[in-house]
Design brief:
Blueprint (H helix, E strand, L loop, with lengths): L10 E4 L3 E9 L2 E7 L9 H32 L1
Antiparallel strand pairs: 1-2, 2-3
Length: 77
């Protein structure tokens, strides 16, 4: 993990086209601004984790449904 110290108004560049700017620091809260192309998806970590979990559940449901269909077809034979 790369750890950088930045002050209000300072920024870092990620790759060639993403800029992360420190907008303010108030107590233990840091407000960040992100300049990135619209094609780059940006999520808060807890939202990203929730999306990943939902995707895993959806895949498991699809696999279970496909397995059930296979079993039903075997029973019909």
């Amino acid at each position: 993990m790369l750890v950088l110290a930045r002050k209000k108004g300072e920024s870092i560049i990620i790759g060639d086209n993403i800029e992360l700017i420190v907008l303010s620091v108030e107590g233990d809260t840091v407000r960040l601004g992100i300049n990135a192309p619209k094609s780059v998806e940006i999520y808060r970590k807890e939202i990203y984790d929730s999306i990943q979990e939902s995707n895993k559940e959806a895949i498991q449901t699809k696999v279970a449904t496909a397995d059930l269909h296979k079993l039903l077809k075997k029973d019909e034979s």
